[in-house]
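Progress report, Aim 2. The chain analyzed during this reporting quarter is listed below.
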Amino acid sequence: MAKIKINIKDGTIKKNDHVIGIDLGTTNSLVAMVNQTNQQPYCISYQQKTFTPSVIHIGNEGNITIGEQAIQFLKTEPENTIFSVKRLMGKSYTDLKSISGKFGFNAIEDNSNSLVRLKLNQSIFNPIELSSLILKSLKEKAEKALGEKVNKCVITVPAYFNDSQRQATKDSGKLAGLDVLRIINEPTAASLAYGIGLKKEDEKTIAVYDLGGGTFDITILNIQNGIFEVLATNGDTLLGGDDFDRNIVYHWIQTLGLSLEEIENNQQNYQNIRLKAEEAKKHLSSNKTYNSSIQLLDETYEISLNKETFEQLISGILETSIACCKKALNDAELKNTDIHEVVLVGGSTKVPFVVEKVTQFFNTAHINNQINPDEVVALGAAIEADILAGNRKDIYLLDVTPLSLGIETAGGLMDTIITRNSKIPTKAGRQYTTSVDGQKNLKIAVYQGERELVEHNRKLGEFILNNIPAMPAGLPKIDIQFFIDADGILKVEATELRSSVKQEIVIKPQYGLTDEQVESMLLSAMQNAEIDLQNRKLAELKSEAEQLIYQCEKLIKSNQTLLSADEISKTSLKINDLKSACNILNEQAINQEIERLNQLTRPFAERLMDEAIGNALKGKKI
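Predicted structure tokens for the chain:
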């Protein structure tokens, strides 16, 4: 078979190209655009929902279910269903070994620094591949709404994402068939959505408090003359609403006198109680108590939670987030009273206790939470996409690198070349020499982190500067330059100045997908495109059928006295025929049974509607 080359390099933007903004979230993901008529950003909806739950189910034959329909499998097939995959981006099994049981996934144990691999229904995936499935569904959602192909996007990431996680996100976009024009920080996107700084006279220092499902960020922004400058950022990539749920779960397990280990080792039980905890959390945002029952270990238990206990359970998590706020302010050399406005982002900020804690800390600042915190990041991404499409010239974004970058020097020390919170894009360099006479090769190992010893920081990659002319120790002059592009991706260049011997690499994290691997995966996707399309059509048709079945069963139940026994009998038979067609997954049969059920029910549905209108108008004059 001839090899097909796929060009995955950045392309130029044509005038008619749609550039979408994507919030690839831990709990939910959204896609947004700017309406060119009124210049307002909006989230693209499908079946009246703007968000797509970041949940993926892999079926027996490798069939993939994403979003709302995948949620049901968290209970029935938790071992084949993945959620919160964003927390795994750029992470190895070693990184996650101590917490893997908390996520409900089957990680393959290899004790290496390569990207974690997950086993779902006999198939092996890494987080890049799984995230690409979500991105692909968002791409299709946008294309369906626009009626046109979409190939270019902006994707948001937490400001505290490191180089590995940013590169992983970009690779996911490539794998989904998207040209990722820019990776931008979620807090920057959120401030754009609120229009803060869009007026030239605006001069403000704001804080963006972003508490999502799985990550937390605090970012301090200075805005002047339409320029967004990130002064400092801090956060935790393993802190969020999932931890609220987990603390509720632990509280209930302890209260019921059950074994935590036993529950965690049974994924169906764990998912049952986790979903109940999430339900309780949302309920307590507007109620004082929550009561329900749950099936665990083949027994039924009554569970309850009041608002006061819930707030005690999450208090420690919020204190951790406030500690991050203090660190960010300290890095920016500011006090909390210097902040003019606070923007709340992420679904977890819907919890009133979160708003209360943030308001207490930033006591003089105005709190912005009018825009749906679930949508605000996607809306801002759409504005940035509009800027990159060339439609806006009045805004300029300056972001920062979240962690220091440097190389290993003698004794395993970390020598920082670019310090954390440096504005990007940027470059910096330093000169070194050899420590051994006649040394011809020099290994350059690149690290990211704030610790003095490299063993405590994260290794991003390494390369060898070869063919250095043999000279006495200390005589060669080796210039090392770091370049960070607008996406926060690092390139390192080393040159021996006396001989002009030169070597450079774009740092690919150790998990990294090569361009050849990405091309191979894209080729595989192309080769299977027809099957994928058929599976998607069948899934959508089945969803339509299930909705019709629900409506017809509801119609019968609500109108027992108005329908004849014959009508009820015939309709019930046709409903069963449609259910049978759905079970055998035959597209033609499902289509036929949908049409037959519609034809059968249309006459008496119209009769019932006429009767309802007649009753409503009875005794009234027109």
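The chain has four domains: 19-239+315-399, 241-314, 401-516, 529-615. Confidence is low (pLDDT under 50) at residues 1-13. These observations will guide the mutagenesis work planned for the next reporting period.
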